[in-house]
Amino acid sequence: MTTARLPLFPLNAVLFPGLVLPLTVFEERYRAMMRELLGIDEDEPRRFVVVAIRDGRETAPTATGMPDTVASAPPAERAPADGFGPDPVQTFHRVGCVADAAKIRERADGSYEVLATGTTRVRLLSVDASGPFLTAEVEELPEDPGAVEGEDTAKDEAGALAEGVLRAFRSYQKRLAGASERSLTTGADLPDDPSVVSYLVAAAAVLDIPSKQRLLQAPDTATRLREELALLRKETAVIRHLPSLPAVDLTRDPTHPN
After folding, report:
1. pTM (2 decimals)?
2. Phi, psi for 138 (deg, rounded to 5)
3. Which is deepest, 96, 106, 169, 244, by most CB within 10 Å?
4. pLDDT tens digits, residue range 187-241?
5. Interacting residues of 175 by C-beta distance below 8 A, sequence separation 6+
6. What is the distance between the alpha carbons of residues 5 and 31, in angstroms, rounded to a whole number?
7. Do 31 and 78 touch, CB atoms closer than 8 A?
8. Alpha-carbon distance 146 to 149, whole Å?
């Protein structure tokens, strides 16, 4: 199994392979991480690992890094493991996603705007807090089609499940945002790879972090798709009975400030 040591970026969110992650970075420990990544040659991937936080929430002590309406003091410096307990690895979900930073831009106030894309799933083996920011030793998790005997059979099953999930997701979207809203899965936007479908739906569905985390760490594509099918049907039924749900607001993806 392939292992690597990479910078670790904890978030109150789950990143999936293939999905774009915008970040506003203002804490010094994460600024230090971005400075190191900027030192990597542009032709090489600037990679870090995103993991979801089990307990608590990473928040800034001030509004620095967000649109400022009044002058504010710079954020207090925090040690790499501050807020994550005596054993940080216990605070994070063990399965995360490698992010490749395509854009890192320093702003006038010293914060950074980052645009990254999820690439591969990884499992945390250990966390090191001895440097200016957290790093982790991780092993790559392969994405298998499914547990059915025979590679072709597994792919066929995953493909059939993906079609069912996309149909369920269309119905879910219409209930969530209204039939007049543009669907994420219409026309040429339809993916044909079952694993891509599984990650797209997992990221787009309005689910809590534990639910999204379970989907991320599903052992194979078919299992993830089965879980999504059950979740979508359940959520659609709930929304059907809650016509006043402010769904349009729920479908807007926020930027994650850190």
Report:
1. 0.80
2. -130, 155
3. 96
4. 446 677 999 999 999 999 989 999 999 999 999 999 999 999 999 999 888 877 7
5. 236, 239, 240, 247
6. 19
7. no
8. 9
